[in-house]
Design brief:
Layout lengths: L1 E3 L5 E4 L2 E2 L5 H12 L5 E2 H9 L7 H21 L9 H4 E4 L2 E4 L7 H17 L3 H13 L13 H27 L3 H14 L4 H13 L3 H18 L6 H12 L7 H9 L1
Antiparallel strand pairs: 1-2, 2-3, 4-6, 5-6
Helix pairs in contact: 1-3, 5-6, 5-7, 6-7, 7-9, 7-12, 8-9, 9-10, 10-11
Length: 271
């Protein structure tokens, strides 16, 4: 089975899609896919589908949705007669207290992303910027859009997708940090300007843009970015920029050569 959740939900058994069109079965399949190889408890599935308004018929309805998913898997298994003998219950297995998709975690692109992101983070922490950039670039290339963009999201999936997007952002920041250390500051300017425009209160992205601007010979633009961020923070949140960003601001003003704050960035993400 091949599972993709970093964008639209795609689940293939023997190359045949088993993703249903109805919303609630899609939610179940999405949650089972995120927990690939692990048991999803029945109460967790019910919370995702109905929140606090669990109907009396919930247990029966959930079993009906599971049956619908298994029927789709049965059709996919029939289309591959030469494959090893498997039944729908082998693929979507009943376990004590819940259900699980009986595949290895590496069958899911989310698990692949996390493995590569951890490798990239560890390489960056160890000072190997080239390896970090390579691992993180491969990790981010797995994303095809917002996580589970075409799936109705309940309470459980809402938290899962929030975590996924935050993890994606961390990997992106660390990939940019690695590229800054490799001296790719000029080629990063366009990407960083776009990211800062999309995330106008994000201090790490602002710091990276300031660094790239300074190294590209435009310290005055870096100072302008700092002033704009400080105005937004004051106006919208009533706070000042963090001490780290203020130190970077002072470094720009004094013309100090150590403008990237790379070590401080990695330590902050590790803490």
């Amino acid at each position: 089975m091949d599972i993709e959740v970093l964008g639209e939900l795609a689940v293939y058994e023997n190359g045949v899609s088993v993703v249903p069109s109805a919303g609630k079965p899609r939610q179940i399949l999405a949650l089972l896919s995120l927990w690939a190889g692990r048991v999803v408890p029945v109460p967790t599935l019910m919370e995702e589908l109905w929140g606090d308004a669990v109907p009396r018929s919930a247990a029966t309805t959930l079993q009906t949705y599971i049956l619908q998913l298994r029927r789709r898997m049965a059709a996919a298994l029939r289309d591959a007669p030469d494959s090893p003998a498997r039944t729908p219950k082998d693929v979507l297995a009943t376990a004590f207290g819940g259900y699980r998709v009986a595949v290895t975690p590496e069958s899911c692109d989310w698990s692949q992303f996390r493995r590569l992101a951890v490798q990239g983070h560890d390489a960056l922490t160890a000072g190997d910027a080239r390896s970090a950039s390579a691992h993180l670039t491969r990790a981010l290339a797995l994303w095809r859009g917002p996580a589970l963009v075409d799936v109705p999201v309940g309470r459980v999936l809402g938290l899962e997708t929030l975590y996924m997007e935050e993890t994606r952002m961390q990997a992106l920041e660390e990939r940019i940090e690695a590229d800054l250390r490799l001296g790719y500051h000029a080629s990063l300017l366009g990407e960083l300007r776009t990211l800062v425009a999309r995330h106008p209160l994000h201090e790490n992205l602002c710091a990276q843009l300031m660094t790239a601007l300074c190294r590209s010979g435009s310290p005055w633009r870096a100072l302008q970015e700092f002033r704009q961020l400080r105005e937004r923070l004051r106006r919208e949140l009533g706070v000042e920029p963090s001490p780290r960003l203020q130190r970077l601001h002072q470094a720009v003003l004094s013309g100090a050569p150590e403008l990237d704050g790379g070590e401080a960035f990695v330590q902050a993400r590790s803490a």
